[in-house]
Write a structure and sequence with these properties.
This protein is of the alpha/beta class. 38% of the residues lie in helices and 21% in strands. Helix 11 links the parallel strand 10 and strand 11.
Length: 379
């Protein structure tokens, strides 16, 4: 079955589109990437999304227009990737949409997560059955609604004898811990959670420090010229989120511009250069990932497989490897899954499972009371 996966994460870099051919169901699941491309948002739309994620207010009529605009961009991405590949028409689209608000479950409230880019409009424009709104069913079952990639990770990237961590570094970092699938009840031992900031603070800092000339630190080249201020990293790691036991999830609501301004204020006492600040923020991402492994994993992995935009940040990879000196840190590409499009591939798989009536969430990762079918179907 050919499926298109569409994903735009908290970095709001653009829409990742993956056209894949899927066979099998779980342990026999096979996915072939036929085409992958990232389609940037128009600058004005990206700026509007980032402003809303940062807490900007808007009227309902503006919200409706934004929902339509995002859906139109997602639909065009699906049409374009289909045309690029030149294959027979895909049978389904799995669209994550664009998260603009995420409130994790708390003791006194259910979680709530809002993704714009409504599937019924994507289906109407692209003329392909579209499955969207993947987080809602898990939240209704008492879960966080995130992370949702652990189950696709489990059946695409687990190993018969290796303990693995699949670490996505998008705007927010998230991990899937995979025990060897040769073990009994291995799926019940899978864990997953949001580790904290990925690229979110770095991208915001680069934009501010460059006065808008840059939006990210390519290869970590700017940060690599600075020096890490370890006392600051240790101060920031004392933030409450890092100490919360999984299941847990987060977003720009916590690790956004307001948090960055607090970090900059903290850094003033150390008189850091711009490069030093970026190096220190990069180390926060690496340290928060490694620290969460040590705190919450049943055992450290044999191998860490990176994916997402942060996996291309060479300096960030070096800092993470330094934090995990006895563990091989590579990318999912080396295990046969394209790291640039892994998240889009995951939502294609989730749509495929929805089509076949297979639950897509892992309660051990999201905290849901039971497995559920994920996504709303729009023929």
């Amino acid at each position: 079955m050919k499926v298109i996966g569409l994903m735009s994460g908290t970095s709001v870099d653009g829409i990742d589109a993956a056209l894949v051919e899927i066979t099998g169901t779980t342990l026999d699941l096979r996915v072939e990437l036929l085409a992958g491309e990232t389609y940037p948002y128009p600058d004005s739309l990206r700026s509007q999304i980032l402003a809303i994620c940062g807490g900007a207010k808007l009227a309902m009529v503006e919200l409706a227009a934004l929902d339509d605009d995002i859906a139109a961009c997602f639909a065009q991405a699906a049409i374009s990737i289909q045309a690029q590949a030149g294959h027979d028409q895909a049978e389904a689209i799995g669209s994550h949409g664009q998260t603009v608000f995420h409130r994790p479950k708390a003791a006194d409230s259910m979680g709530y997560s809002l993704q714009l880019g409504r599937g019924e409009l994507i289906a109407a424009i692209a003329q392909i059955t579209t499955i969207d709104n993947f987080r809602a069913a898990d939240i209704a079952a008492g879960g966080q609604g995130a992370p949702l990639v652990p189950k696709p990770d489990a059946y695409l990237l687990s190993h018969p004898i290796e303990h693995r961590c699949i670490q996505n570094i998008g705007g927010i970092g998230n991990v899937t811990y995979l025990p060897p699938h040769s073990q009994a009840d291995w799926e019940q031992q899978i864990r997953g959670w949001d580790t904290g900031p990925g690229n979110s603070l770095l991208d915001l800092a680069v934009t501010q420090l460059s006065e808008g000339k840059l939006t990210f630190d390519r290869d970590g080249a700017w940060a690599a010229t600075g020096h890490v201020c370890q006392p600051l990293v240790q101060t920031w790691l004392a933030q409450d989120y890092f100490g919360i036991a999984p299941p847990k999830s987060t977003g720009r609501e916590l690790f956004g511009d307001e948090y960055l301004q607090c970090c900059i204020a903290d850094a003033a006492a150390f008189k850091l250069s711009s490069a030093d600040l970026l190096a220190t923020l990069t180390d926060l991402t690496a340290s928060s990932i490694a620290d969460s492994y040590r705190r919450f994993l049943p055992k450290l992995p044999d191998r860490v497989l990176l994916c997402g935009g942060g996996s291309r940040n060479l300096y960030l990879r070096q800092r993470l490897q330094a934090q995990l000196p006895n563990i091989e840190v590579v990318t999912t590409d080396e295990a046969g899954v394209n790291g640039d499009y892994k998240e889009a591939i995951a939502f294609a798989v989730l749509a495929y499972w929805r089509h076949h009536g297979i639950p897509g969430n892992l309660p051990t990762a999201t905290g849901a009371k039971y497995p559920v079918l994920l996504g709303d179907v729009h023929p």
